[in-house]
């Protein structure tokens, strides 16, 4: 479930020409939605610049899962992405969300990278220490090294 989306956030998605929001209703009640958008990877030396789609959010109300609602919304997101001339769609899934991982795998998604994190301990006061100069042996990384062209 989670917090409800505000009217402002939904309006922002709808007015964004690079994003869309599709919903499925039954009995005048939203039972599922998908938020999809396009992104342009920046042209940086370590990455190939590319335009791709992101499945930002796909949620189905409890009680309506495994009835084809998610599949229908996912197909709609794929159609939207193809209409934007992108050839790849990506999404993030929490590691513990085995139901979602199974769903995406069933629809041809594969893991292409892992986003890892670590909780840091609370800050501990550090006693200031005197800085000392560190003498290092010469090497190719130092200006006076004979193999350095400078």
Topology overview:
Elements: H1 7-15, E1 19-26, E2 29-40, E3 51-60, H2 69-83, E4 89-90, H3 98-106
Parallel strand pairs: 3-4
Antiparallel strand pairs: 1-2, 2-3
Brief account:
The chain is built from 3 helices and 4 strands, in the order αβββαβα. It is an alpha+beta fold and 150 residues long.
Provide keyphrases for this structure:
150 residues; alpha+beta; Aminopeptidase; four-stranded mixed β-sheet; 3 helices; 4 strands; 22% helix; extended; transferase
Structure description:
InterPro entries: Acyl_CoA_acyltransferase (IPR016181), GNAT_dom (IPR000182), N-term/lysine_N-AcTrnsfr (IPR051556). GO terms for molecular function: acyltransferase activity, transferring groups other than amino-acyl groups. This is N-acetyltransferase domain-containing protein. It comes from marine sediment metagenome. Pfam families: Acetyltransf_1. The protein is of the alpha+beta class and 150 residues long. It has a domain at 7-106: 3-Layer(aba) Sandwich (Aminopeptidase), CATH 3.40.630. Helices cover 22% and strands 21% of the residues. The chain is built from three helices and four strands, in the order αβββαβα. A four-stranded mixed beta sheet has the order 1-2-3-4, with helices on both faces. Strand 1 and strand 2 (29-40) form a beta hairpin. The longest helix is centred in the middle third of the chain and has 15 residues, at 69-83. The model has no long low-confidence stretch (mean pLDDT 84).
Judging by the overall fold, what is the CATH architecture of the domain at 7-106?
3-Layer(aba) Sandwich
Low-confidence stretches: none
CATH superfamily of the domain at 7-106: Gcn5-related N-acetyltransferase (GNAT)
Distance between the termini: 62 Å
In the sheet with the most strands, the strands line up as: 1-2-3-4
Number of helical elements: 3
Q: How many distinct beta strands?
A: 4
**In percent, how much strand structure appears in the residues?**
15-25%
CATH class of the domain at 7-106: Alpha Beta
Could you say which overall geometry the principal axes of the C-alpha atoms support? Answer: extended
Order of helices and strands: HEEEHEH
What is the CATH topology of the domain at 7-106? Aminopeptidase
| Rg from Cα | 24 Å
User: What fraction, in percent, of the residue positions are helical?
Assistant: 10-25%
> If you average the pLDDT, what whole number results?
84
Major sheet size, sense and barrel closure: 4 strands, mixed
Helix- and strand-based class?
A: alpha+beta
């Amino acid at each position: 479930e989670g917090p409800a989306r505000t009217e402002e956030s939904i309006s922002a998605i709808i007015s964004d020409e690079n994003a869309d929001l599709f919903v499925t209703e039954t009995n005048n009640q939203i039972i599922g939605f998908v938020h999809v958008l396009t992104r342009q990877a920046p042209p940086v030396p370590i990455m190939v610049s590319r335009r791709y789609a992101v499945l930002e959010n796909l949620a189905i109300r409890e009680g309506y899962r495994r009835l084809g609602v998610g599949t229908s919304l996912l197909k709609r997101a794929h159609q939207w992405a193809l209409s934007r001339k992108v050839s790849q769609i990506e999404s993030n899934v929490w590691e513990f969300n085995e139901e979602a991982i199974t769903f995406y795998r069933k629809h041809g998604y594969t893991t292409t990278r892992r986003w890892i994190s670590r909780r840091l301990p609370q800050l501990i006061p550090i006693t200031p220490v005197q800085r000392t100069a560190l003498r290092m042996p010469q090497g190719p990384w130092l200006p006076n090294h004979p193999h350095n062209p400078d």
